[in-house]
Design a protein that fits this description.
By secondary structure, this protein is of the alpha/beta class. 33% of the residues lie in helices and 18% in strands. It starts with 7 loop residues before the first strand and ends with a helix. The structure holds guanosine-5'-diphosphate and magnesium ion.
């Protein structure tokens, strides 16, 4: 069992000003629409319908929050004790590159997305979902460029690896690491950018992604079972 399995829908946000005020670390999931973001979040959280809200018409361009810990607490219920129990937030960002969104709506979410990744203090790391067959489109690069100046980690999940043969998958991973490795800070030090292969179909990379996300969120990968064993052993 992973702590991520505790994820519960928390709130939907459509403006920077509406973002939760609480000081809890956030891990945000970004990616082109159809990259496999919702499916990946659902698998990581072991819930079939967690990201259902992200598919509700009118909400697809919103930021959806899922809390880890303090289950079933809604933001607008003033239940401070439960709110205190929230240990981290998973944040489902609007998918980008969706052709049918245009005009003012497109501008609005681009701005919201850009503001969020560049300015959100609580944001600890970005999990970037990229289709392993179509790595780093223009908009993915845009996302990396927005986030790189913050110096915070990006973990790139190359999704749908089951669609590639072993050779092509290895190649996709190598190329992704080369691309991400080309980003450096002002001291010419590589930024903390990592990548892995992932498939919802055959669960390739599930454990790696889980452990990585828990670590980025400041939650350890220790299970209840491990804690019990340690206590007994001590
Ligand atoms: N073969 C395969 N298909 C996947 C995988 N992950 C997602 N998909 C499919 O890709 C499509 C888009 O997935 P979805 O999670 O809705 O993408 P989102 O728009 O990024 O949230 C769906 O039809 C999924 O079933 C995967 O690992 N392997
Ligand atoms: Mg989705």
């Amino acid at each position: 069992m992973s702590l991520l399995w505790q994820a519960r829908f928390f709130t939907t946000v459509n403006n920077f000003q509406e973002l939760p005020k609480m000081q809890v670390l956030e891990i945000a999931f970004a990616g082109r629409s159809n990259a496999g973001k919702s499916t990946a979040i659902n698998l990581l959280c072991n819930q079939k319908k967690l990201t259902f809200a992200s598919k509700t018409p009118g909400r697809t361009q919103h930021i959806n929050y899922f809390s880890i810990g303090g289950a079933h607490v809604a933001q607008h219920r003033k239940d401070e004790i439960k709110i205190d129990e929230i240990r981290a937030m998973l944040v489902d960002l609007p998918g980008y590159g969706y052709a049918e969104v245009s005009g003012p709506a497109k501008l609005h979410w681009q701005q919201l997305l850009g503001d969020y990744v560049r300015r959100r203090q609580q944001l600890a790391a970005l999990v970037l979902i990229v289709d392993s067959r179509r790595p780093f489109t223009e908009l993915d690069v845009q996302m990396v460029e927005w986030f790189a100046p913050t110096g915070k980690p990006i973990h790139c999940i190359l999704s749908k690896s089951d669609k590639l043969n072993r050779n092509d998958a290895t190649n996709a991973l190598r190329q992704a690491r080369i691309f991400l490795g080309s980003y450096v800070d002002e001291n010419n030090q590589q930024l903390p950018f990592t990548a892995q292969l992932f498939s919802v179909l055959n669960r390739n990379g599930l454990e790696e992604a889980n452990n990585r996300i828990l670590k980025l969120a400041g939650l350890t990968a220790i299970t209840d079972h491990d804690i019990d064993t340690d206590a007994a052993g001590g």
